[in-house]
Each structure stands twice: as structure tokens, then as C-alpha cells.
Amino acid sequence: MSFAQFSFHPHLVANIAASGYSGPTPIQREAIPPVLAGGDLIGLAQTGTGKTAAFALPILQRLLTGPRRQIRALVVAPTRELAEQIHETFERLGRDTGLRSVAIYGGVSKTLQLKKLAAGVEIVVACPGRLLDHLGAGAISLAKVEVLVLDEGDHMFDMGFLPTIRRILKQLPAKRQTLLFSATMPDEIRHLATDILTNPATVQTEHARPADTVSHSLFQVAQNRKTELLKTILTEREMESTLIFTRTKYRAKSLALQLEKSGFSAAAIQGNMSQQKRRQALEGFREGKYTILVATDIAARGIDVAGITHVVNFDMPDTAEAYTHRIGRTGRASRTGMAFSFAGHDDRRMILLIERILGSKMEIRATTEFAGQAAGVDPLERDRPERPPFGGRNRPSAGGRPSAGGRPSGKSTARPAVARAGASVGARTGGAAGKRPRVFLAGK
């Protein structure tokens, strides 16, 4: 199947070919026809499936006819990076059409944005907060908007943007085409869709699962040994382009600095950075100046960097859906990718949720430095009954079995069940022959 079936304008056909698209992705095949027909649409798809082009191409086709230099299409996105990426997609696919796009978001001066708006544009790609600022100042009018796109709807809900979205909706014509794209459909987004869409078509392409081109691996490690493990992995494996996720802004910045001091080409991107520095880091990563980008979840969606070979969950995500969005940064456009997750016993429940989405268990990986994790040994013991966490009342000590009161029943000369900080991950076999080896967490 090719894009020829959609009968796009010759300029768009040329730009599609120049962009390297060999054929439409599943979300593009399903979404483009109803969008071209002018109907409302709900698109459910994981990241990295090509949904930006799924709405950008029909919008460009529509705007080729009709008035120019007035805002006819509005795309609302939750993050600056995603807004910039969508804007760049419109520019690339709309080359030589005369159609103009502008990205509107905070963290940068309003002056250049106002100049571009004053010069006249057909497409505005905006983050909710800065768009509302411009609307409040009377610098922008949405009275002529024909198409509204709400991209990453669930992420906008997570970031608390729904009240702002509803205020923006009041500035739009009641008669318009509305497209809502989301990776998941929480109740709040479903209610919004009911309020603002009219008889929408719904397209869905395995939105809950990461791409099949990604392999998923698990490393057990204590918090205080994660950096050591990461450096070992980066040294032992060929990782051409690696995106690392941390839970906090401070950790992203700190980890990038530690990697840089160790000789790795690394940069960070997180919310406390200025937009200019975030852009420099992202462009440096995209162009190969940096082979490692350490990020908070601000980069989990919408970052379109070709050729990311590895995603590392330095910290496990808070939800299984967030895992999907993080991993969506690799294995894109039919390329293969690898996902590594660092986890301890406290992450067991999240791992089970993620594996439920994946439909299989993640492979347990080992490194030369952390050789105790033998192939086939499950460090999280996911097939065993729940047991008290390390430090709990029934924790065995010095190899003795716990009595009813949680104390060892007798003295033992065996080595401690939990290796001390700085020791390598180890495994020992206990009990009757044939039992599965137990693996203990290093550095706890």
C-alpha cells in the first residue's frame, strides 16, 4: 500500500517521498481517509506510529485551497518539544506549498512569535499556556479556525491542562473539524471527546503495546549502584544513540554530568532548563554531537529523533502507560530498538503491570561486572509468592532461617543473604537440590 491511494497534491507527494516515507503506517492508513472527508476523529495510537503525519497531511491538503494568511488550523500539544516537532513536520511536508506554520510555546520570547503571527500564518501549533497568553493579550484570533487537533490528550490531562483547553475551546468556531489523538483514553479525556466531537470516527492501532521492533530487558540493581551499572552497560555494549529516563530533574542533570566526567558524550534535558538549552541538547543529540541524552518524562512523548537504538529506564516509570511512551522513542519507522530497565524489589508490581501489556516477561540481563545475574535467573523472583521486602520483619539474617518472631533460629557461618554495598550482584543456591537459585540485591 502506498500514499498514492489518497490522491494528495503533487507538492505533498514530492515532500512525502523526500521525507523517506515508503508507505503509510497503520494509523495513517486508518486516519487519513476520514480526516480528508472532513469528519471528526479519535485516534488511539502509541508513540512512534506516525500519527503526526496522519493529521498533518490531510490538513495541508485542505489548506491548499481557500484563503491564505489567516489561522485556519490549530494544533494543541502538551510540551514545547512536541509542539516544535509537529511544527517541523508541517514545514517539511508543506514545503513549496506557500503554507506557513508557527510554533507557540513558553520559555522563549514572545516577540518573534508575534512577528510571525503578524506576517500571517495558516497553521498554529501551540502549548496551552502560551496560547492562552496570546489570546488574553488579543495578539491572536481563532475565529477562522477550520480544524482543531488535540494531540497527546492523555498527557495534557496528566499535566493539568484540561481547564486551559476548555478556555481555549470557547475562542473557536462551533463549526469546525476536531481531531483528538491520545495513547490512552482515561475517563476525563473520554468526557472531553464527548463534549467537543460530533459523530467521530475512531481508529485504534494497538495503542497499549510498545512496537514489536523493541526488545525489553531487565537489570536488578540497588539504587546506589545504578550509575555504576549504567557505566558498565555503556562500556560493554555498542549503544549508538541512547535515551535515559530519570524520575527527577535533579537526577537527570546530575547523571548527565557524571557520565560526561567519565568520558561519555552526554547531555540532559529537563524542565528547569531554558528553552534554548533544551533545544541545544536535543539538536546535539539528534545530530550525533551527544550519543546519550538523559531526560525526565518531559521527553517521553513527541521527541522525534531518528535512530535511537536504546532506551534506559534508570528509574522505573510511575505507570505502565508511561513505560510505553518512553519506549516509543526507539524501534521507530520499522527499526529495531532495545529497552533496558533498572529495577529493585520495590518495582516488582510495576514490572508485572508492564509485562501484562507486553504479553511476556522481560528478559533478565547480566553484565561482566554484575556477573551474578546468570542467564535464566529471575532476580525479581516473579513466579514466587509475595514475600516481605528487604528490611522487613521476616528478613533472614546471616543465612539462618527466620523463626516465628522473624529472628534467625540459630547461628550460622554462611555468608549474609544480602550483599553489602559495593559488592557485586551474587546468587546462591539454598535448600534442596533442583530448587531455583535465589538472587540477591547488591548494594542494599
Fold topology:
Elements: H1 10-18, H2 26-36, E1 41-45, H3 51-63, E2 73-76, H4 80-93, E3 101-104, H5 110-119, E4 123-126, H6 128-136, E5 147-150, H7 153-158, H8 162-169, E6 177-182, H9 187-196, E7 201-205, E8 214-220, H10 226-236, E9 242-245, H11 249-261, E10 266-269, H12 275-287, E11 292-295, E12 310-313, H13 320-327, E13 337-343, H14 348-358, E14 363-364, E15 426-428, E16 438-440
Parallel strand pairs: 1-6, 1-7, 2-4, 2-5, 3-4, 5-6, 8-13, 8-14, 9-11, 9-12, 10-11, 12-13
Antiparallel strand pairs: 15-16
Using brief descriptors, characterize the structure shown:
single chain, about 450 residues, alpha/beta, Rossmann fold, 2 domains, seven-stranded parallel β-sheet, 14 helices, 16 strands, disordered C terminus
